[in-house]
Amino acid sequence: MAEPHAPRSAEELATSIGALVNAVFVDLDRLALLVQAAHREAGGGPLAEADLAALGDEIVTTLPGRQHYIGLGYAAAPGVMLGQPRFMLWWHRRGDQVGRLRLNLDPSNVDVYDYQTMDWFRLARDDGRRVAYGPYVDYSGADEVTITLSLPVVADGVFLGVLGADLDYAEVENRWIAVLRGSSRDGVLVNSERRVVTTNSTRWVVSQRLAALPAAGAGPFTDVAAVPDGTGWVVALANSVPLTP
Amino acid sequence: MSAFSTLLPAMAPTSRVDEIVERISEVIHLGLLADGEQLPVEPELAKHFGVAPMTVREALGALRERGLVQTRRGRTGGSFVKIPDGPPLDVLRTRLVAMTGFALRDMVDEHAAIATEAARLAAERASTTNIRQLFTYTEQLRTASTLGARVRADSRFHIELAVAAQSERLTRQEVRLQAEVAGMLWLPVGEPVDVERFVGEHHEIALAVAAEDAVTARALTEQHIRSNLTRLSAIRHHLTGGVDSG
Q1: Which of B47, B51, B113, B141 could form a disulfide with B153 if both were Cys (CB 3.0 to 4.6 A apart)?
Q2: Whole-prediction pTM value?
Q3: Could you say which DSSP state residue A213 is in?
Q4: CATH architecture entry for B11-81
């Protein structure tokens, strides 16, 4: 059967994959504005939980309308919340049920979920950039295979914390495989830790760590493009090899 | 008929209650729910687990008896998580004594199968967050001041290996096995556990995972888990009054 369209380049595929990712960051940017507004209204002083009412409303309104979201929220930097060195305003969704995520955040406790050591928080804070982390087994939160997208929120040079969205891997993988199938070549989506996010081929395995981040001309790869969202993910294409039985 | 009944054992009518009790107990013992955290109300729990409200009520009753949940009446009432100071020693002793030598060996065999494969895959797939967590749990095991904290730090290390393997299924199995094994392993019976050895072995496994050395990670984990059988057998002999050869 003839190809209905000309085979798509890595850059075209990366742009399509980036569209979903970018739409998530649009949501996170909107939430970040609400954190900044609360910070301004409090005169830059520490916030009480009530000061984040508008943010909570926006999270609860946004979450049910996004089929591929299983979590959405805000994780505060230390000192931002009055009397709470660790604070998460994070909601999760199971089917049509939405609930506030409550984790053990007491830093003196051996069982603490210290989100400040998690890459989705740490990298957003330290590098001041958008992060896409995963897919990973989220045992503390969603208890599902998750991809977390996050970005830092800053006001007047002060780091206020991180906004994040937990994506349901099963939902987004389907959409991304469909994109990769737009190429007649073997395609693979790789995260910034060189692990395979998804692929249209059997030559790679999801979660496999590649020896090196793909580059055009290196190994089997003929065409490589970054997903245009600043997260360090890349789409890489390789000429198809016949399947060995 | 006998093959049929072996392959398809009868389902006890209380199995759903037990299942809910075990699942909630596990996450509390593993420290994944905060002390004092309020559980959802009964109708919500019933809907969540897909069972009748009566089943949830029975499960909450059993959890109260185990001291893992406290119930308060009135307007601010509800069921609240109570993290126990330590593992339930009497229950663990009884459970260990009731196991045959065959069953004990079988349990460790299963654990070795799951844990060594998890370690191998972890070395191939771990993220930097996973690796940092492995070292954190190792350090927590070294500095833990109570038995409960020690058991949880030991468990969490092994669960993190399965998480680092990027496997939801291995993680589930490791959680189940930790809930079964960890408390018994640290029972204060007979020779005290050599904490330094455990810390040292966890550290070596974490280093192998960080070095992306699957062969070493696997071999070290196998040795580490296999040594549990010696410890568990020694405790069992001690409790049943035999000669402690461990």
Answers
A1: B141
A2: 0.84
A3: -
A4: Orthogonal Bundle (1.10)
